[in-house]
Amino acid sequence: MTRTIALLLAAATLPAVPTAAQTPPAASSQTFAPLFAAEVERARRDVDASIKAGINVPVPKDPGGGFTHEQHKRNYRIIFEGGQLFRLTGEARYRDHVRDMLLAYADLYPGLGPHPAKANQNAGRLFWQSLNDSVFLVNAVQGYAQIRDALPAADRKRIDDNVIRLMARFLSDGSPQVINRIHNHATWAAAGVGLSGYLLGDRDLVDKALLGLDKSGKAGFLRQLDLLFSPDGYYAEGPYYQRYALQPFVVFAAAIAANDPGRKIFEYRDGIVLKAIRTAIDLTHDGYFLPINDAMPDKSLRTEELYHAVAIAYGATKDPAFLSIADWQGRTVLTPAGQAMAADLAAGKAKPWPFGSRLLSDGPDGKGGALVLLRTNADPAGPLLVAKNTVQGMGHGHFDRLGWLYYDETGAVVTDYGAARFLNVEAKHGGRYLPENDSWASATIAHNTLVVDEQSHFAGDWKAGEKHGTRQLAASLEGPTRYTIAEIDSAYKDVKIRRALLLVEVDGLANPLTLDILHGTGSGRHIYDLPLHFSGHIIDSDIAFDRNLAERPVLGKANGYQHLWVDGTGTKAGKARLTWMQGSRFYSYHMLPPAGARFIVAESGANDPEFNLRREPALIQRVEGAADATFVSLLEPHGAYDAAAETVVASSARVAALEHRQEKGADLVLITLVDGRRVALAVADDTTADAKHSLTVDGRTMTWTGPVGRLDLAKTGAKK
Q1: Contact at 8 Å (CB) between 56 and 366?
Q2: Which of 20, 63, 496, 666 could form a disulfide with 684 if both were Cys (CB 3.0 to 4.6 A apart)?
Q3: Could you state one GO cellular component term attached to this entry (predicted)?
Q4: Residue 693 designated active-site
């Protein structure tokens, strides 16, 4: 009997893997829940089409997006789906097709050397980078496990020795520079090697996957769980790569739970695997992952990695909130875990996912900073302020400490470019990261944070950045005034940056305000730039811009500045405003910049000979020759636009005035609305939770405990 690779926490709940003398039940004799039934039919279409087309196992040639690359990807999906269909239906044609495909790989794989399209990554055999070989093995082992005992001994031996074991050896002993890393590539390799070990009954492979090649525990799957996640389940490289890495983590964890139950893998490190799944779901807006660091903005919970993660997490916890995520996904996986989850979803057991504000610590010990999510309600598409006060994010990290993003039901409002890449589009640099990923997307000026002297944080060196965390000083996740305060003094050698972001609900305003107080404190004289990247069309501004109509100068020569066209520059004393429209809403950005500041309206896309960059707007507040600089800004969503009805409501801002002063160790900001009401917000320099503070505002005493205080003032009095 083959060693079952279980995809549920309890191996006893799994149906037996069929043997040559044991045929699984036909699908027609089973009743599947709708979600799982749709998955079965989708897989039938895929595998039936592959059977009709015949076995196609080409000699590897192309990089990502090329024919051979895509064909081998299709093949591992067919192996996975075909094996699961045989388990579910007992139809010999599915077993035979998977067998024939694997036998074709048994003929091809032993003669392969490094991939001919290898680049600067570690070369694979079937694919241009070994990462894809690991993904192949993770999928192929799961499919092969379902047919293995139903094969003649000779076929089983050929596949075991010439495909599974050979690939596992290449990805372990043959690739020490990969599997011994602490990185998502190593996670995929460890999962492929470990799953192979369980299938083949090879304890050596399993232990190398769990503990590293020397079995010391200094590398391997368990060490990756120790070092790649914070105590809150936040992944070092950010949400996009958390999504990608989840599949090997959860699939291998489920196999460990079934085959090595004594390890109690789902309890390991205070349940870090399940925490990581929950955190990944929280790191979305309207189902789409927050695109910080190297990230594609179109990646959502509707992805293979999360289908596996949600099914396995539900099997391990029976938390009905996972069912609502599966319902949103509209997909599951062809495994017992997916089948059981679909049945409970159909039985009406789902409950809404509890989206809320979260402070997700970063770093293995949770002391490297945090990603802070501030939400005003549980609506997955509702207002969301993201403060990126994290560690660098390894080689996929961008140089934007203390950056921020803002979302609401119109989508991304204050935006992040994400990665400069056309994934698997061969015509675009073979689907790899583009040169502009380094020259623009990673640069600090491409993000919503302070830039000093036109240099990126840590001089654009991610390895230097990885050595220094960010200090998360304080946060409040509930109430009408939610906030986060953080600082860093290592991004530039002689400038400290401190930023407070407040999400402020005000009676009578349909959407919260975002208050941003940023201090740059340095020695000597500097150029301070504070960019805001936004989505939408500029409506108007009270800044008198000198517009570049005949030609568009470029803002700078390096560090991302060479990619910015300058559309206009202007100055304005006191409060300034820029209003834009996105979808059905208007947004006004109110600013109190340092004295002598200029405003620059810019657009990405300069010095882009291959048209690799998206054209996106930015507003930059710039002050030159200053030792210190304080920027106070307020984002106000307002009004509505209905294109169908041709109606416009409240296109003008309701914030009439914005004032700022520093006194008694605090920043005091006064927001005046058009109806005369005022909101006073104070942020203390001392961020300790029990510190007591007092200020006088409009003749009234304002007292508070902790970092942030608030006083709402009517036209003729005050109320707390």
Answers
A1: no
A2: 666
A3: periplasmic space
A4: no
Which of 259, 280, 315 is the last residue in one of the domains? 259
Query: How close are the terminal C-alpha atoms of the chain, in Å?
Result: 71
Cα-Cα-Cα-Cα torsion 68, 69, 71, 74, nearest 10 degrees, comes to 170
**Residue 347 and residue 477 in one domain:** no
Catalytic residue among 285, 396, 457, 563: 396
Alpha-carbon distance of 351 to 353, in angstroms, equals 7
Q: How far is 231 from 671, CA to CA, in rounded Å?
A: 38
Catalytic annotation, pick one of 94, 240, 241, 314: 241
Range of the structural domain that residue 43 is part of: 11-259
Among residues 328, 354, 380, which one ends one of the domains? 354
pLDDT at 158 over 50: yes
The residue-averaged pLDDT of 551-568 equals 98
Q: pLDDT at position 119, please?
A: 79
pLDDT band per the 50, 70, 90 thresholds, residue 5: very low
The tally of domains found in the chain comes to: 4
Asked whether residue 656 carries a pLDDT value surpassing 70, the answer given is yes
Could you give the CA distance from residue 270 to residue 250 in angstroms, rounded to a whole number? 15
CATH number of the domain where residue 230 is located: 1.50.10.100
Assess if residue 697 is contained within a domain: yes
Are 454 and 554 found together in one domain? yes
Tokens 């690739």 found at: 175
Active site residue 406: no
553 in any annotated domain: yes
| Pair (487, 606) in one structural domain | yes
Instruction: Say what the pTM is.
Output: 0.94
Which pLDDT band holds residue 20 (cuts at 50, 70, 90)? very low
Q: Specify if 3 maps to a domain.
A: no
pLDDT of residue 234: 98
pLDDT at 599: 98
Encoded tokens for 34: 């709708």
Give the Cα separation of 193 and 187 in Å (integer): 10
Q: Please give the structure tokens belonging to residue 507.
A: 């009676």
1 is a domain residue: no
- Together in a domain, 325 and 350: yes
Rounded to whole angstroms, how far apart are CA atoms 200 and 254?
17
- 201/52 same-domain check: yes
497: tokens are: 């940056």
Same domain, 316 and 442: no
Same-domain pairing of 699 and 641: no
User: Closest Cα to residue 355, out of 378, 375, 384, 325?
Assistant: 378
Task: Please determine, for residue 138, whether its predicted confidence score (pLDDT) is greater than 70.
Answer: yes
pLDDT score for 430: 85
Q: Is the same domain home to 447 and 429?
A: yes
Predicted local distance difference test score (pLDDT) of residue 25: 54
Angular region, 229: left φ>0, alpha ψ -120 to 50, beta rest: beta
CATH number of the domain encompassing residue 426: 2.70.98.70
- Region 176-190: mean pLDDT is 95
Give the whole-angstrom CA distance, residue 433 versus residue 428: 9
Q: Kindly report, residue by residue over 342-367, the tens digit of the pLDDT.
A: 999 999 999 999 999 999 999 999 99
The number of helices, as runs of H, and strands, as runs of E, in the chain is: 17, 28
Q: How many CB atoms lie within 10 A of CB 694?
A: 12
The SS3 assignment for 638 reads strand
Structure confidence at residue 27 as a pLDDT band (50, 70, 90): low
Averaged pLDDT score across all residues of the chain: 94
